[in-house]
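ugh ok so i messed up the first submission bc i forgot one of the chains. this is the corrected input, ALL of the components this time, i swear. 826 residues overall. if the numbers dont match what u have on ur side tell me asap before i send this to the collaborators (the ones from the other lab, u know who)
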Amino acid sequence: MDFANMLSRAKIASYALMTATAAQKDAALLAMADALIERTPAILEANETDLKHARDSGMKRAMIDRLLLDEGRVAGMAEGLRKLAALPDPVGGADEMIKRPNGLLIAKRRVPLGVVGIIYEARPNVTADAAGICLKSGNVSVLRGGKEAIASNTAIVEALTAAALEAGLPAGTINLVEDTSRDSAFAMMKASGAIDVLIPRGGPGLIKSVVENANVPVIETGTGNCHVFVETDADLDRALRIVINAKCSRPSVCNAAEKLLVSRPIAERFLGLAAEPLRAKGVEIRGDKAACALIPWATPATTEDWYTEWADYILGVKVVDSFDEAVSHINAHGTRHSEAIVTENYTLAQRFLNEIDAACVYVNASTRFTDGEEFGFGAEIGISTQKLHARGPMGLREMTSVKYCIYGDGQIR
Amino acid sequence: MDFANMLSRAKIASYALMTATAAQKDAALLAMADALIERTPAILEANETDLKHARDSGMKRAMIDRLLLDEGRVAGMAEGLRKLAALPDPVGGADEMIKRPNGLLIAKRRVPLGVVGIIYEARPNVTADAAGICLKSGNVSVLRGGKEAIASNTAIVEALTAAALEAGLPAGTINLVEDTSRDSAFAMMKASGAIDVLIPRGGPGLIKSVVENANVPVIETGTGNCHVFVETDADLDRALRIVINAKCSRPSVCNAAEKLLVSRPIAERFLGLAAEPLRAKGVEIRGDKAACALIPWATPATTEDWYTEWADYILGVKVVDSFDEAVSHINAHGTRHSEAIVTENYTLAQRFLNEIDAACVYVNASTRFTDGEEFGFGAEIGISTQKLHARGPMGLREMTSVKYCIYGDGQIR
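and heres the new structure output, hopefully the right one now
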């Protein structure tokens, strides 16, 4: 099916989905989970085709690992859909209903966004994940994954759409863009009116390209140059546990710490405590002058380093002279994702919460908690680092819009 | 000051404004109102300069009326600022605060958007209005009005900034873009990172240009091709009052009705009732075949007409065979602004609320109520017709974002 036809069918399906009941949507999600399990052999066979191409073209091991499916991973995708079915329906109810002096009753009802485009890379599990979250929130999905995963994605979407159709949802509820050239991504970015919202999921290059080119509203997700600031009044043992956790528990993710700021009066003592445990975990340290003087094996950080999300076992370390310097440095170099202070000082803790401009600001906890599951949302489509519509972990509620429903009895103005 | 310097000063000011108290902001708003009154002579003199250019260049009367200021209009702008000062502060509090099983306390705090760009046309009252709404919600404003009003806007902003500075707010709280060429509007659209949100206020051409070109997140406002659907079970007297009000009370605004749909069984009776009162108000009717047969003085509507917002004394009239036809027509031709049904039928009223995809959906009331004041918001920056972030009338709350503030006691993951 060509792209224009797909989008016009998607828009029609979005009207049907707008009024689908939670029972219909949940039944479809459960059927989709069953279909993934039933069709596991076909999905793994398709994945084998993708893997062969990837190996032949010399793809890196880490990338191949993301592309790889096995029975366990397919079962994980199915389990994700079942968990979605068990969550409450985010649409249909009203956040509030007010009565105006003239008698008008105005309800602010939660409704689906409509047609949601997702542009992502070579992780086939995103396909089932994104299709499920969109469906649960009453949205039609238009999925455009990377070319490396096209066989896997096709097999997964075949399973999902067959199950959704059988469960009574309209054709066009879940759509896979078969053309994986740059043209198709560009066409999605320019589909104002046909696609209601576009969510890029992937590396900074992809996200930048979507933000630069889209005329469709975009929710920007994900880059995280996160800081932990160990302030003079920190409990240093607690600070050490938080720094090690934020840096080392999973360095490849966007909520991992990339930078450590330490107040000068405690710099020698804290870096003395932290350097060896970090080195033992395989962390490379890039420091400013003072940090390098305190950690002999550290290398000097470049200006560029302070802006960089390495997503790796690398930590930038800077010694700061004041609370204000730490805040200015974070607001100037951070990506507005997750920032943490460790301190026992009440006033400075409050000031950090007030003055840092980021989606998630922590006192005495690891930045690693910025996550839909950890926040109790039950599902997550990404972490928004913009300020419009959604900020921080985006759950089902963030996949909805509102509609004012106004009940009158003849009011005129 | 050049544009880049203005934006970097604006960003710095936005951090100060982020933590300003309501008392500080309200004092500044009151001082700004006083400054407008005090400087009325200078503002009117500047306005005279704009008016002279406008007349010399042959500007239309309606446009000149929008550009014109007098003592009463300046006093109205000041009064608007005083009303803002009296409203509750939309930022600082938290919508909710949850406690997670691990003890983390997560507050979803309301915060300003940051730096808000407003691109508008030749109405100088928007300058004070937008500056005031931005300030009350803790946002820095970057105002770029039309070249026709540049002298008036400069005088107004001089009054506002002097008062804001004296009230202790930072320089760069309110900014006027002095260059009124297309280049400056384009530079604002491309200022991703420096401007957090862009709101175009003006005609469809301006809005389309901003949506097409911006890489900054945009809130699309305002076009309204609104329908009133008079269904078979309508109370026809009530329907008549609503149609006349929706069409004639102020045809130039976006919440005025542009189209009337009538169910076939009552078409002859209702159009018999409505035609003469509409004609008496000076309304031109463009009908489909059935409507033209019933109203001899109506002219046939073109295909294009059904999509058009005339913002004038023109009404498109169509006779529909079913409820479904009316819903499909509205969803296909409307601009997702405001749509109304007049009916006594409970089930069809509910279905209309469910099935129409628009910011505001009415049962038995005029579309003219889509307005921040009428909704009780106290202030309005525009009507959003998009689904992301804000939909319908945008008040102070819609000028805010959220920030998760997380209170830990050593949690790691």
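quick check: The longest strand of chain A covers residues 400-411. that seems consistent at least. Chain A has a mean pLDDT of 95.
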